[in-house]
Amino acid sequence: MSSQDIPEENLPAEQDHAPGAVTVADEENPFADPGLPPHEHRIQDIDERAARRSERAVALLFTVSMLATLGFIASYVTIPRDKNIFVFPIGHLSALNFALGLTLGTALFCIGAGAVHWARTLMSDVEVADDRHAIAAPEDVRAKVHADFRQGAKESALGRRKLLRNTMFGALALFPLSGVMLLRDLGPLPGTSLRHTLWAKGKRLVNMNTNQPLRPEDVAVGSLTFAKPDGLEETDEEFQDEMAKAALMIVRLQPDNIRDKRELDWSHEGIVAFSKICTHVGCPISLYEQQTHHVLCPCHQSTFDLSDGARVIFGPAGHALPQLRIGVDSEGYLQALGDFEEPVGPAFWERG
Predict the structure, then answer these.
(1) Residue ranges of the chain with per-residue pLDDT less than 70
(2) Per-residue burial over 244-262, b = 16 or more CB atoms within 10 Å of its CB, e = otherwise
(3) What is the Cα–Cα distance from 68 to 142, expressed in whole angstroms?
(4) pLDDT value at position 236?
(5) What is the pLDDT of residue 16?
(6) What values do phi and psi take at 114, rounded to 5?
C-alpha cells in the first residue's frame, strides 16, 4: 500500500519548512537550492494496524533482550566454571563462557534491533532543513561567564587557603587507589607459574590427535606432530592455561641435517621437540616446510629453522623457540627429560 492509495483526508498533515523550500536560480543566486524530495509516507504512518504490528515487533525484541539478560545472570550463578561442552562445529569449550557469550550477545542484539526497528517504522522520518547559526555566544554573555568564573575562584579561596587546596588535591589523587585495590580480586598473583610448564622428567609425550603416547617409530621423517603432557585432558579446568605453555611440536629430521649441537644432544634419533608457541605474540605455530625444515607462524610470518636450534630467520619474533629435551622410557615411549630451560611464549619474558 502506498500513499497514493489513501484518501487525502487520511494522510498526515505536511508542515511547511521554509528553509527547505525550492529556490530558483537567478543572477544574484546562481546556485539554486533544489529543496527536499517529496516525502513518501510509510505504511505505519497511514495504517494504524501496521503501526501496532511494528510496535509489537519492537516490544518482542525488547522482551527477548530482558529474558536473555536474566539468562546471563542465571548462567553466571549456576554453571560451574570447570564444566565443558561440545558444540558442533566449534569443538570442546567452556559451558560458562558459551552461555555468557550467547545470552549477552542476544540481549545486546535485541536492544539494538528493537531500537533500529522503532526508529525506522514508528518515529517521524520527515526531513527538516534548518539554517546554520553562529556557535559563539554573544560578547556580553562571554564577559559575564568569565566574570562569574573569576568571582567563584575568588570566593573559593583556593589561592589563599593552601591547606584546603593541598588536602583536597591529595584526597582526589588517593581516592582512585581504592578502585585499583579491587583489581586484587581478579585472581592470585602469577608468581613464577609463567616460567614453568607441566613438562617434567619422565612425563610422556601424548599425540594431540590420537590421545596416545608416542613411540619413536610413530614419528616419520619429515612429519610434524603436536603433543601434550601425559595426564592433561581437554575436560580439565586448567587445560587451556596449561596448553598455552606446554603445547609441543615434534619433527623428525635426519641427524646429519641438524646443525646445532645442543639441539642434536637434546633430540632422540633425530626427533626434536620445540615449543609450539611463537616467541612474538604467542600464536600457535602450525606450518612446516619439509625441504627447508622451516616452521612458519601464520599470524605475523615469523619463521624458525628447526635444523638450527629453531632460530629466527625471518619476521618479528625476538628469539628462538625453546627446545624440550627428550628421550625414551623403559617401555619405549618418548618422554621429557625435564622442563623447558627458558620461559615459553612471547618476549615478556625477554628473559626478565
Answers:
(1) 1-25, 33-35, 184-185, 190, 347-352
(2) bbbbbbbbbbeeeebebee
(3) 50
(4) 85
(5) 47
(6) -65, -45
